């Protein structure tokens, strides 16, 4: 069950992050086209899913909260967990995406790679952190409910009336 929940969370977060970061990347490049957005989205989604498959995010987030002494404090733990996720996903996705797009630009029109990467990295860190912070808990609640964890037991709520 835990693995199923992990996979569902990875897919939902991967789709959300990839969708948002692809939009942001396409718009900030100044060359938005539906085709470039869709290609960027699919590339980013593939990278996100690979990271999500191999990196035990919940375990890392829980250990970070424990080391910081904020276990049991929902908001600070969520903020730190979002930051940990951002530190893992964002650099990998951004480096891949910027490199892929850098190679696609004709040499005569390419900006310096470091400037292109720096701008994208800064924007991506902020956007990805906000997305993870705002949606991860809600996604987890939806996934847990869909899998019958933490909600009412199967068959509905128990009868609490005195018999």
Layout of secondary structure:
Elements: H1 2-29, H2 34-54, H3 57-68, H4 74-104, H5 113-146
Helix pairs in contact: 1-2, 1-5, 2-4, 3-4, 4-5
Question: Can you characterise this structure?
Answer:
With 163 residues, the chain is an all-alpha fold. It has one domain (2-146). It has 5 helices and no strands. Helix 1 (2-29) packs antiparallel against helix 2 (34-54), helix 3 (57-68) packs across helix 4 and helix 4 (74-104) crosses helix 5 (113-146). The longest helix is centred in the last third of the chain and has 34 residues, at 113-146. The protein is elongated and about 55 Å long. The model is unreliable at 155-163 (pLDDT under 50).
Number of domains: 1
**Average predicted confidence as pLDDT:** 88
Largest sheet: none
Q: Calculate Rg over CA atoms.
A: 19 Å
N- and C-termini, Cα separation? 35 Å
Strand content: under 5%
Low-confidence regions = 155-163
> In sequence order, what are the helices and strands, one letter per element?
HHHHH
Query: What is the general shape?
Result: elongated
Helical proportion, percent range: over 70%
Number of helices: 5
Tell how many strands the DSSP assignment holds.
0
Structural class call reads mainly alpha
Give me some keywords for this one.
mainly alpha; 163 residues; single chain; 77% helix
Short description:
The protein is mainly alpha-helical and 163 residues long. It has helices spanning 2-29, 34-54, 57-68, 74-104, 113-146. It has one domain (2-146).
